[in-house]
From TrEMBL:
Keywords: Flavoprotein, FMN, Oxidoreductase, Peroxisome. This is (S)-2-hydroxy-acid oxidase. FMN binds at residues 118-120, 147, 168, 196, 268, 290, 323-327, 346-347. Its EC number is 1.1.3.15. It comes from the Eukaryota. It catalyses: 2-hydroxyoctanoate + O2 = 2-oxooctanoate + H2O2; a (2S)-2-hydroxycarboxylate + O2 = a 2-oxocarboxylate + H2O2; 2-hydroxyhexanoate + O2 = 2-oxohexanoate + H2O2.
Amino acid sequence: MLHAFISKISVVNYLNFSTHSPLKAAPSSLGQNYNIKGKMSSEPVNVNDFKELARNALPKMYYDYYAGGAEDEHTLRENIQAFHRITIRPRVLVDVSQIDMSITILGYPISAPILVAPTAAHKLAIREGELATARAAAAAKTIMILSYSSTCSMEEVASSCNAVRFFQLHISKRRDISALLVQRAERFGYKAIVLTADTPRLGRREADIRNKMIGFPVKNLEGLMSIDVKSDHGSKLEAYYNEMLDASIRWEDIGWLRSITNLPILIKGILTHEDATKAVEGGVDGIIVSNHGARQLDFAPATVSVLEEVVHAVKGKVPVLLDGGVRRGTDVFKALALGAQAVLIGRPVLFGLAAKGEGGVRTVLEMLKNELEISMSLSGCPCIKDITRSHVRTPDHKLPSML
Ligand SMILES: Cc1cc2nc3c(=O)[nH]c(=O)nc-3n(C[C@H](O)[C@H](O)[C@H](O)COP(=O)(O)O)c2cc1C
Ligand SMILES: CCCCC(=O)C(=O)O
């Protein structure tokens, strides 16, 4: 009764903004997320909020390049929705007063199983480009995989922070130049080569075709290779990469890569058990289950839906990582439960960078880490190794027979 009375007074005061009401100051004192008119605040509270901020911050052509997928963007939607179809099976009454999210990848310790995926052209988002992203990844104590198509050179990124970095490679028609890039990566302290295998040519990104997307300077190739794109139609980027990429690369070429570097090799873009088996037989040191953020083959499966297939084929011989559609700590939890060692984040990093620069990327990574920490607490998993297959239910999950 007393409680009801107090609540009523409070509501009246709240609505009247009586000068005596302690709640009068509420809208400002509660911070910018509080908006009494019910409008969406400009302060992001989750990773998805950065998408809209980035849309407002960027020219349409650049936003579409970052956000878009191939053709009908079926896989783009599926990458997210496949996570939504998996539920978590929490356990209670476990001591979760201390949560430890730390892991090691190829022997390198990181604060949580969340890495920065290789993405091209960070200077389209902000002037400092990949330097800002690298600093944010270092602050979050995680690994950044620098894209072959970065708009800062691998040397600039190496000297901007001393965190662990990997280098992502495409094999181009000029194999001598690919070899040179690998040697440079080795010399400048990159700890692994991530060979992207799903891009013999560029997928059809129709927004880029409509926008006549421009090419951007691939800084690592400066002075080495210039490709004069003649096409005036469609995406210049597509024309550029189709001219540059070697569409004839085959499994045998992993042997060539092995012969020119001592660095561990991860292969990115595996979606089937057949290819996972070939990759392990070919001697790679890790596999990244990826459909390139749904930018290559539309109707390729959502990555999380094929993760287990790959994990079973790999049989624990090398680490399996996953990217595509990871937007929540619960997504990270689900991927780990299905056998991934870690996940990579693509677009949210770009959106964070476009919206709020280095601090935006830091916030994106912190948000995902905080959400993972909460998910682990509420599921009864104090350490990463406590997250097991039995902590998730997938759509094809069969109830154990009761007979
Ligand atoms: C704008 C953009 C550029 C990308 N550039 C590269 C690249 O240069 N090399 C590469 O291997 N993958 C590239 N990717 C794919 C990402 O590494 C990653 O597979 C994908 O973004 C993960 O999906 P998510 O964006 O849903 O997190 C790019 C993705 C985006 C969105
Ligand atoms: C060869 C493509 C480089 C950029 C890229 O990977 C992307 O836009 O998805």
